[in-house]
Amino acid sequence: LVARAIHYSSKTGSGPFVTVNCTAIPDSLLESELFGHVKGAFTGAQASRAGFFQIADGGTLFLDEIGDASLSMQGKLLRAIQNKEIFMVGSSRVQKIDIRIIVATNTDLNRLVQKGLFREDLYFRLNVVEISLPPLHERGEDILLLVQFFMEKLSKDMNRSAPRFSDKVLQTFKN
Predict the structure, then answer these.
(1) Residue 60 class from Cβ within 10 Å (0-12 exposed, 13-18 middle, 19+ buried)?
(2) Residue 158 above 90 pLDDT?
């Protein structure tokens, strides 16, 4: 929600907002998913396909759980961020990109850097502005706002009126 708010309230807010959950994509596929691939680049690549970097061009790429990226993938991300260009898997042609990158993680990246599990140079490229959010369980009022938001959204999607929760149920959610 914070990443979306940053994107939509910025000058690139009319551009695409692309979310990538780094833990949901196996490392063996992540490079192709991020940078795209050309036809024939690997078994099963029957057509060229744009990656998330190309799709987000002119907008924002949100990399969720960046702390789980492998060291190899971190190097490729660093190169793309530093040079503002990518290579599709199987291609030697450079593609320029113009994107904002927002990352999130529930791990302490500085500690991962100290342990050698996260590249220090990538950390400094990504850590331009740090926004620390307390865990949701420490923000009871936010839980109630989220409950209201999602109930209104689901009710609208289902063409129903939003249910009302008793004070006891709301307190349970908050706790």
Answers:
(1) buried
(2) yes
Token output for 63: 């990399």
User: In the chain, what's the furthest Cα-to-Cα distance?
Assistant: 61
SS (H, E, C) the chain: CHHHHHHHCCCCCCCCEEEEECCCCCHHHHHHHHHCECCCCCCCCCCCECCHHHHCCCCEEEEECHHHCCHHHHHHHHHHHHHCEEECECCCCEEECCCEEEEECCCCHHHHHHCCCCCHHHHHHHCCCCCCCCCHHHCHHHHHHHHHHHHHHHHHHCCCCCCCCCHHHHHHHHC
Give me the percent of the chain exceeding a pLDDT of 90: 55
What mean pLDDT is reported for the chain?
91
